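INFO batch 0412 | record 1 of 1 | parsing
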Amino acid sequence: MKPRIDYDVDEHYLPALMLFPFEKNLEEWHAAGVTPHVMRRGNSRHQVLFVKSKLASHPYKFAIKETTLEFARREIENYHKLRDLDIQTLTPVGIVVRHEEDIAIETPAGIMYQENHTAFVVTLLEDAVLPESVLFGLRFQQEARQEIFNAIAELFAKCHAKNVYWGDASLDNLLIKFIREEHTLGKRRKLVALLADAETTEITPALSTRMKEADLEFFFESMLWLDEEFHQRGYPRDRSITVSDFAYLRERYNTLTQIWNAHKRFDAITNFNSERHFGRFRKASYADTLLKHLEEHKWYLSERMKTPVSMRDTTLDWYANYFLPIQDLLKQSNFAEYFPDKTELEVYLEIMENKYYLSEQQKRDVGLSYAIQDFAKRFGIEKHYASSLKKMFKTLIDITKEYAKFPR
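INFO prediction complete | emitting tokens
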């Protein structure tokens, strides 16, 4: 009896997937005429195959994993939940299920029949990525190693701040993606760690400290396993994991956890998705700085409207009428020349932090204009950039004066 194939996949990819021989196990695909797409890969406890679409109109590459129906459904569902939380994962395409004749099992009560399914988890094959287990087999300078650890720590901290328990955190379940992050002031190179196996993840109402530690400890153990594997292969010791790597990863995790918790606190107060509108804060203190400014803006709006204004409405008004005009101003200026590695929010918040710092120092509210001028001087950009900066800062001050009161 010919097996029945069901496709529970994004219909955009269906024409390409229907040309693959899902009536066979992955280990038989090569004999069935499927040429695997060759790329570096990590270890996997499941049979996994990388393939390219045969359709010129659908030039996609897929990673296909053979597993059980229960695990396939769980993994695809987890991918969607994680992406809804803005956590970087593989891009889920869907599930293909092969239904074969039920298996007859003899029991004391007679012949019983067990369903016979084989499921395939399909994800898009990411470009410009490498498995962590491959990366750490290469010879990297310490700075490059730390950049990789930054990406790993970012993923862990973000997952834990959003109550995601990984459950099987290891180098084999990570991919590193090289991207160019774009923002209004320019572009910056960034490494991103992708969660590449969501089969065991759990999204909980609250994640205990013990569960967070369990995730980290299991990951550290996976690094030691890989270290031993490198040793057995005869790799030089300086290519493998060191004690300082553990210390650095833990330090970055702690710092980034503070930042993601600051996002969480900010979003709870404002009912506003700070990450989607601003990207990740560079410092945890940015949340408090921005909240202080929003409190000022809330007071101003309430006075102007003669009625209390909610923090949600305050934030929306500030974002639309105050921040976006500043963002447009920075975009139209040459500000990227002065601060190529900063986003517009970072520049704005650093100016505001400078205002609060100077006000504390001088025991008075120094005003935004003074804070901006001091900020420019401290960065040493008052020389040949002076005329354009003065023009831009004047417009910036005019915007702030229109929507909120700042002492001059």
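INFO post-check: Confidence is low (pLDDT under 50) at residues 403-408.
INFO record closed
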